């Protein structure tokens, strides 16, 4: 309940923040003074001050209207530099035990330093970020108010992580059906889709739990060692079994986070469903693909529509109003 209230408060806060304009020169902007660590984190998340030359903010790639995911296949950072992977949603991460597609970081605090220093994302040493914030009149004041001291590396990443923990969603047609709060939004098609998700489609083998992920690394066949050569979890563990395995992503709000997969190869949910139905039609030389995906699923046209309706039913109401 607490996190729900916070998320709502932060939505109001975001709109106030945006109405101040998003000029790239943060010094000219009057920032709304935060009264909590989460609100300070929210300011930082939306501010390009954390990048070289004030070019990009976390929110440039993690777009609030798209459940804090991006709309491009791979990320685009400072100077238009392309990264190698798709930007996942930064929502519903508080229960996650691994961060990034390969799980190379475990906590949101650890994770937050990554993009700031990453040369193809924000490209700013964390020590330089600390300097910039402490030279910025308003941020200096805000950090002292919230932390009792000027910005340092830990307070920056603590504030951002605190904001990210407010980004939990639980007001979808599916949630309201499950809780009995409102059973009218969860359509007959979505109900059939849920059955397909759990049984015929085998989705539930990997995507289960409150956020539809086991937090495990699995290989759904998007590695062939040739044109598809991101080996995923293997980079972290060096265990050959992990070649081509990626973190099973949660599926909340997945209808607004296209394109999909670590490389952004699928443009629509329908394409994702067609892929799972018959992966060989898309990639026929994949290495170590999970045995649960060995045979075509044999989904009918109606099954596919229903499965898509179920995935759409996982969308929080705030994204449906747009
Ligand atoms: C240039 C685009 C870009 C910027 C800027 C950016 N990110 Fe990301 N973010 C990504 C990409 C791409 C990934 C996935 C990278 C990977 O898995 O190797 C990611 C992953 C994440 C994840 C992990 C989500 C998951 O499901 O594992 C979180 C959390 C996150 N970013 C938060 C942030 C924060 C906080 C900032 C600002 C300090 C930020 N990002 C800035 C592109 C960006
Ligand atoms: C063997 C485990 C496994 C099964 C079975 C499985 N998934 Fe996945 N799913 C994953 C993994 C792992 C990824 C990320 C793969 C990657 O990027 O290489 C993923 C990615 C996705 C994505 C993309 C999410 C995003 O944010 O990019 C969607 C949507 C999805 N799965 C839906 C489904 C549906 C629907 C089914 C059933 C038809 C299903 N999955 C079956 C493990 C699985």
CATH-assigned homologous superfamily of the largest domain: Cytochrome c-like domain
β-strand percent reads: under 5%
Question: Looking across the biggest beta sheet, what order are the strands in?
Answer: 1-2
Number of strands: 2
Q: Class of the largest domain in CATH?
A: Mainly Alpha
Name the assembly state.
single chain
The small-molecule ligands in this entry are: heme C
Distance between the termini: 24 Å
Q: Please give the largest β-sheet.
A: 2 strands, antiparallel
* Helical amount: 25-40%
What is the CATH architecture annotation of the largest domain? Answer: Orthogonal Bundle
| Low-pLDDT residue spans | 1-27
| Spatial extent as radius of gyration | 21 Å
CATH fold description of the largest domain: Cytochrome Bc1 Complex, Chain D, domain 2
Query: In total, how many domains does the architecture comprise?
Result: 2
- Gross morphology is globular
What is the chain-wise order of helices and strands? HHHHHHHHHEHEHHH
Number of helices: 13
Mean pLDDT: 92
The secondary-structure class comes to: mainly alpha
